[in-house]
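Dear colleague,

Thank you for sharing your sequence with our group. We've completed the structure prediction you requested, and as agreed, I am returning the results in plain text so they can be pasted directly into your records. Please verify that the sequence below matches your submission; if there's any discrepancy, let me know and we will rerun it promptly.
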Amino acid sequence: MLDLLQQGFAAVFTLQIIGFVTVGVAVGIIFGAVPGLTAVMAVALCLPLTYGMSAAAGISLLVALYIGATSGGLISAILLKIPGTPASIATTFDGGPMMEKGEGAKALGVGIVFSFLGTIVSIAALIFIAPSLAKAALSFGPHEYFSIAIFSLTLIATLSSGSMIKGLFSGVAGFVFATVGIAPVDAIRRFTFGQTDLNNGFEILTVLVGVFAISEIIGVAEKVRHEGDIVTGSVNLRAIKGFGFSLREFFGQMPNAMRSSVIGIGIGILPGIGAATSNLISYVVAKKRSRHPEKFGTGIIDGLVASEAANNAGIGGAMIPLLTLGIPGDGVTAIMLGGFLVHGIQPGPMLFVTQGPLVYTIFAALVVATVMMLVLEFYGLRIFIRLLAVPKHILLPIILVLCVVGAFGLSSRVFDVWTILLFGLIGYGFVKLKVPAAPFILGFILGPMAETNLRRGLMLSDGDFLGFLTNPISGVFLVLAIVSVLWHVIQAWRGRPAKARNASA
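Please find the predicted structure tokens below.
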């Protein structure tokens, strides 16, 4: 392992990749800091740029964007009391009050340092857990992969939005769009309507850019006319030494940081939940475990530490199922899965066998990007604060043009440009109807995996469906899928009387 890790760092420490990581972290911080621009949008927008890069350089850029955007949300959460990303919601609870008390610089310092620690802890977990999990998954066959895909689809559908019906609808819709084109086993044309451009189906890149980037551009453009000018808080950074807090405060927060990091890693591993949930759960846990819970929400660093350590720890957690099983843990890793496929790489247990050096290059890129995040956020804070005030009517057209150029550059087809606009409208419709977009992407990505392995499994068992239940691992995942759906149905049923009471009150 150490030899491979050493090779990974040697691959990353080149002028080209260090440059991409630096730019990726800086752009990611901007996307995370500006309300309305998210980590999902940053990765989706920059994905076409990686098309002409080597796999190591392209994936390094994507992980740098992921880390920068996840951490960058703390800047606006503290200065504006507006979370730049859903992962920083709990950061506003104590970051905002600290800013009002004149402790903005200290709040930023605490957020930056414990974001760094949370990310490092999760990367360490990724490095030690992922190879063992991949080794165990090498024995998986078509039955297991089909069941894992179904289990992942049900988790996304039931946990991502709070509405099982909407989640299932979104997942099935993604599945349906994935069936367009030539079938994977018998090569029959499906839903092509005589259009040769549809023979290969929709490019995953155009679907991702459309659903996440174009739809967000439309959504932000719709709101921007009704928003006033952004007023950022002023922070006197010159009067602060170091990161603005003492070593005693640092070591006193370590139990809180470690506990929150473990929560972030655990939730990050579960498909479909993500940092938006982990920061809130860790905040609640920190409050319950605290000796002074009444001070939470008044501007103490305990809440900041819990939120920032947990949301950044979700990065390593979400990468574990992505690399070992090919299952994305959240929206960003769903797009990163598309990035792997664009470069001809299939994430999964075989990735550790056939592309071992590349896997450890990704681990090294994660570490380097995390260190870069710490440095850039500390020394570039003044620049990022000014960028918060850039008018959206200047920013959005630039992003839209980049999306169109990226889609056209994929295969030099105008068809791909129309595709991103089509999926942009679909994504915007999802936002309006409050249908979660993540299950759509998971359905689009996991649908072919489920279909192909279902057909292969049936061929191996001579058309007998019982093979999926009698295979131990496959059976366990199918039972877990049923339990997941039933659990959500019961939770929704129990919640109905309370909602009815609230409506009648």
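Summary note from our side: Strands lie at 181-182, 189-190.

Kind regards,
the structure core
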